[in-house]
Design goal:
- By secondary structure, the protein is α/β, with parallel strands linked by helices.
- The protein is 31% helix and 27% strand.
Length: 362
């Protein structure tokens, strides 16, 4: 199910062009013979419409073609990142301990190695290459996750901070990245690591018997099928099937949250906001499939929440193919990716929230 762009965003770079030339509003007013109020609206990207004569005078005074003054961008999950030209990618590192030396305390663990899962790396590489094509500055932040690590208060504090500034992409489920649990739960306003909170989410992870972690949106499966489950029915809509060869399947969740910025914090006008994007695969192929789908222009618009401060979670299903006789290495290749229809209950709730906020702004 594909959903193309329904809305486009026109961004004016007048503020940046004036700064490059050391021009003030009065300077541009004198050279272009344009009202100061119009100039201020264009600088703040709060304009409703611009006449052809105004554009002609602006381009003449600045010495630029119209394409450098205005840019038409798709209104999708990458819009805030395109406008600010920066993002931080968060990934989880698995931690392992080595045998405890005889001279160490009984409760003292020693970390011997940490690694990034191969599928998380593939998703990380896919997203990074996409962003580099857009000339985006990329920062990286690692989060240590491991058996017995427990709940780290520092992780909760850092998760809260990403909703206060910058654009962020989180890769990996709560099994691969403890940071994921904190970020997703913060977006929905519920405490993490509490299975009784699953009703707050439209989807969750139904884990198999050997894959499990305490989570507010993940639980142990009681039946034979496991994967991404729709809530509150617990119906598995994107199953994970592991095959020795041939075609198998996997699933993922994509969460997008538009972060509101106060007027005093805005750097690119009234349309300035930040975004948090989480790509959460049930297992490896699902994580890569989520990255592939999120960067597809035909899908990216359908992932964008209709309002700020309202999380939108969508489910992804994928198929993979494993070559026969390749059991000593993970030869799986993702062959098909699809965005599942949004649950009616979740879609209705988001439309209602967007309508309320629109009335308040009016």
């Amino acid at each position: 199910m594909k959903k193309g762009h329904e809305n486009y965003h026109v961004h004016c770079y007048l503020k940046e062009l004036m700064a490059q030339r050391g021009m003030t509003v009065d300077d541009l007013h004198a050279q272009a013979r344009i009202d100061r109020g119009t100039i201020s609206q264009l600088r703040l990207n709060s304009f409703k419409g611009v006449g052809a004569k105004t554009i002609e005078r602006l381009c003449g005074a600045l010495g630029v073609p119209i394409g450098e003054l205005f840019e038409v961008l798709p209104e999708d999950i990458w819009l805030p990142i395109r406008l600010t030209k920066e993002v931080t990618i968060h990934f989880g590192l698995r931690a392992f301990t080595e045998p405890r030396p005889a001279d160490r305390g009984a409760n003292e663990a020693i970390i011997s190695r940490q690694f990034l899962g191969s599928w998380d790396f593939r998703a990380f590489k896919w997203i990074s290459e996409y962003l580099m094509r857009l000339n985006i500055r990329i920062r990286f932040e690692e989060h240590i996750t491991g058996v017995g690590r427990g709940i780290d208060p520092a992780v909760r504090a850092s998760a809260q901070r990403i909703f206060e500034g910058g654009n962020h992409i989180v890769i990996g489920s709560q099994i691969a990245n403890q940071f994921t649990e904190e970020v997703v739960c913060h977006a929905y306003g519920v405490p993490p690591y509490n299975p009784q909170m699953r009703s707050a989410f439209p989807y969750g992870f139904e884990w198999d018997h050997w894959r499990g972690v305490r989570s507010s949106f993940g639980w142990q499966a009681h039946g034979k099928q496991y994967g991404i489950a729709e809530l509150p029915s617990n119906k598995v809509v994107a199953p994970c099937t592991i095959v020795p060869c041939g075609e198998g399947s996997d699933g993922a969740l994509i969460l997008v949250y538009r972060v509101f910025r106060a007027p005093s914090q805005r750097a690119v006008g009234d349309d300035d906001e930040r975004v948090v994007i989480c790509l959460l695969g049930y297992s490896g192929p699902g994580t890569l499939a989520a990255a592939q789908l999120a960067t597809d222009p035909e899908y990216a618009a359908g992932l964008y929440p209709p309002a700020r401060k309202t999380p939108r979670m969508r489910a992804v299903a994928c198929k993979y193919f494993r070559e026969a006789g390749a059991l000593t290495q993970d030869s799986r290749e993702v062959t098909e990716v699809s965005l599942l229809p949004e649950p009616k209950q979740a879609a209705t709730a988001m439309k209602g929230t967007a309508a309320i906020r629109k009335r308040r702004r009016g």
